[in-house]
Amino acid sequence: MTVKEVLRAHAGYQAVHAGTQGARAGTRGARAGTRGARAECGNVRADTRAGDAGTRVEGEGGPTSSAAPAATVAAGRAAQELGIRRAEFELAVHLGLIAVVGAPGGGRPRVHEEEIARLREQPGFPDGLAERVRTVGTAEGAALLDIAPARFTRLARAGCVSPVTFYLNRYRAVVWLYLADELAAFASREPELLAGRTPSGMRTMLESGADWRPRNWRSQRIDRLLNRTRDPWVRTAVQASALDPVQLAEVVDDPYERAYLVRVRPEPVFGRPGSMAAREAMGELMLADDPDEILWRRVNLTLELDGAREDRPAPRPGDDGGIRTAPTVRAGAGSRTGTAIPASAAESAPPSVRPGAPGSPAAGVPTGKGLLARLGWRGRGAG
């Protein structure tokens, strides 16, 4: 190879080497541009995510719409967070200790998280809430009062202590349950009844077969339901739930009003008794059975009915107005064991009275009878 050929080859090698380096430089530049583009895309995505997050935070922290529902939890989860059993939770709702709200579409009741937080912040939680809903039977109640079970039964039959709920045992017998707090309060209030001889008046009443347990249970239940509503027709329906269809028809002689009372009667929050035996027992215990209690319920029903008629007439066929009732805040019932018995009115169909029959008053128009006549009171000498 001559010198010229060597120089030419060296010059070609340098040219090729320079071209390779240029290509590599171009590749590096392309890669750098790609990285820059990726970085810009990343910045755009980050900006987009930040904007979305900012939008979500603004939506959560800004003024909320009145239509936005508050956070609620199911009853089972609420009972778990409050450290009580489900039966105790239902009893707490029945007693008005826990506020529940109806689920959209008529589902099972739910509890606001704010209500759970309020209960958890109370002094003595969770033992305090569990103690307020602790129920005892006859044997445990007698041990709590340090008396014999027979004496406890006599005190309960005489109306000294009132049951809060009941259940059916396997023999379908009613077993009454009492709040432990109320028994302790009774012991401190009436210590003389826990020892010594039974007062003569109480002994005479017990010997006649009196039993005030069902009556006291009905009275407390009706009072709690009345405290949960302001609607006059709902209050009338609560009073009407203690009378059988015959007694109800004598006081409320308008069949449309009786049908309306059935429609607006408060339903149990956690469902009605499931078994037929429980429904029958509930229906029997719901009705007043003593003459003076029946008269008392008829008087209260008459007074509530007069107020309801003054507020608005009961709807009749063809009316386009809806049922206007005040929302209830707290409702529900609970039982301990056996067949659950919610504290609710057992629905009964109104008596079949032909609308427009003679003697049937117009809606919302008083009949003109006196109070005693409307109550079915008959004086001496009445045939």
From TrEMBL:
Name of the protein this chain belongs to: DUF6397 family protein
InterPro entries (UniProt xref): DUF6397
Region (Disordered): 47-70, 307-370
Bias type Basic and acidic residues, positions: 47-59, 307-322
Pfam families to which the protein is assigned, alphabetical: DUF6397
Biased composition annotated in UniProt, kind: Low complexity: 340-370
